What we know:
- Helix content is 34%, strand content 23%.
- The chain is α+β, with helices and mostly antiparallel strands.
- It has one domain (5-232): ApbE-like domains (T-fold), CATH 3.10.520.10.
- Helix 1 (15-35) packs antiparallel against helix 4 and helix 4 packs antiparallel against helix 5.
Amino acid sequence: MGTVFSFDVRDRPTPAIATALRDAVAWLHHVDRLFSTYRPDSAISRLARGATTLDQVPDLVEHVLDLCAEAETRTRGCFTTHPGGRLDPSGLVKGWAVEEASRILRAGGAVNTYVNGGGDLQLSGEASPGTPWRVGIADPHRPGRLLTTVTGRDLAIATSGTTERGCHITDPRTGTPATGILSATVTGPQLTWADVYATAAIVLGPETHEWIAGIPGYNALTVPTSPGLHFTARCE
């Protein structure tokens, strides 16, 4: 999927946890084979160029595309599966895949873990007994510095922005690059939706906070183009 995944398991090692870790890694490779836009033989690449049809690809592809349609509705049209006019559900797939990998670990007995997919994290349990996870959020105005930290248990954190990849997010409503803010970090229980909402936040810009305040369990921090001005969503 064009990025790096990592695991941090804080539970005492057991054979069941070792098996779950192998299963989680195998799951991510399976998702890559189905959905990577970098692989011409992936199901999504073949579907995008018309080399196959929806009824010929695995059911998991249809499931993800259904989630993408729901994402478009939830984000008021600020999320799309066709950036630049080509089928590409990557804006949802990575977070969804990481969240599922976390579930696999938990089902195998690893209850205190995090799974990191390109900087987006699904946190499970806690970092150590009685200590929540603590995650630093990079400051796009000051490379190498932290903007703030997020602490919590059983939490997802996703960040989208232009710092590392430039203006790569397009506003589906206008077809032009979304440049209103530099970055958006969204926290909530599920990485699938935190990742989608973070992408949509880049499109929505200053409208993000009014919108996300109406979504129970999710909060956002956005960094505008002017240094020193940071806006946080209302905490529930």
